Amino acid sequence: MTFPIGLVIGCVILTQLLQTSFAAAADAAVITDIAGVRTTAAIQRMASDRLFLESEPLREMTLDMVRSIVFDHPLLAPTGGGACVWLANGDRIAARAVDIKNDALRVSWPVLEEAAIEPIPLERVSAVILDLPATIGERMRLFADLETLPPGNDVVMLLNGDRSLGEIQQLDAAFLELKSGNSVLKLDRSRIRALRMNPELTNAARVTGRRATLTLTDGSRLTTTSLEATSETLTLKSAAIKPLKLPWKDIHACHLYGGRLIPLSDYEPQKVEFTPYLSTMWPLVRNANVRYGPLTLRGMEYVSGLGTHSRMLVSYMLKGNESEFQTVVGIDDIANGAGSVVFAIDVDDQRVWMSPEITGKSAPVNVPSISLKGRKRLTLIVEFGQYADVSDYADWCDPVLLINAD
Fold this sequence. Notes:
The chain has 1 helix and 36 strands. The chain is mainly β. The protein folds into 2 domains: 1-259, no CATH class; 262-403, Jelly Rolls (Sandwich). The strands form 7 sheets. It has an 8-stranded antiparallel sheet with strand order 4-3-2-1-5-22-17-18, with no helix packed on it. Strands 7-6-11-16-12-13-14-15 form an 8-stranded antiparallel sheet, with no helix packed on it. Strands 23, 25, 28, 30, 34 and 36 form a 6-stranded antiparallel sheet that branches. Strand 13 and strand 14 form a beta hairpin. The protein is globular. The two termini are 33 Å apart. Residues 1-25 have low confidence and may be disordered.
């Protein structure tokens, strides 16, 4: 599983599974529908399966037609020394670990102000970052390690690069106790970079189907299938943590999935082919760039997507109810302006779209909607550009399948 960092979305509720009604939010939001049309308006209320916007006359939209709502609440950039908790379902919270005891993690989360978050069972935690690296390169290496370290043990990663394997017993303000073999190691907390929990012992499945993914202004990301709202607060339920009540001012955005809009990352690829330029192998990464960081194009972070690298081919079998494919492509910001690739899309083995050569300095490209009516296979391709495979961190951002209305 992958757990990228930071993104874009606003706040809303899903029909049937996501039920709510609330009074007007003071701030205007940008509402994007499934056709890509954007509307700027204040939300007057939501009820059942409809969204009501402040306008004359009052405008309403069915929630199945809403793709995202984004508020003008700035998203804070991660900084060195920060802390974060990665949850086993793919969510994350910008919280600092207080302690670990009785197989549960207690955290301090500034966004909740004086409110307290319930201890999180360790089986729902995938990683705890105690000291976020200051540079992007160091963060990418840390994220990749947290995602790819072999299972079988908890792993304690130290600031000096050393690692200790075993079973975490407890953590307090000064020390961490790690059972390793027949002994218990007592490690100085101030020397610890991060903890990777044994993935064999986590059990929180990634949420699919109807859901909303919220991005908070502190960079936290939470997935919910149930929301309740008033004019001032939003109460959400998550499979990973107990119900939370958050003020609207701390919500940056919300994406709606399920219904008529399905993220391509929910589908299992039928085939993945990677052809290295020399010998370095790169994986297909869901909902993160190929180096396991957030999908980011020219400062804009995306909630869902695919991290790829030249040359790669990823093929999906369709289910017959898809009508369109939509996506944004580009070379991830971690390339620092380098990289050169050509993106292409085949449908039933026929080329339907191909980009010009795209570099790390190119603007993101909004791919025209690709018709999938009556089609069986969708294939995404990233070809080498003029600079071989150097920094070819190719992102397919917010790739979604539009499902037939009937």
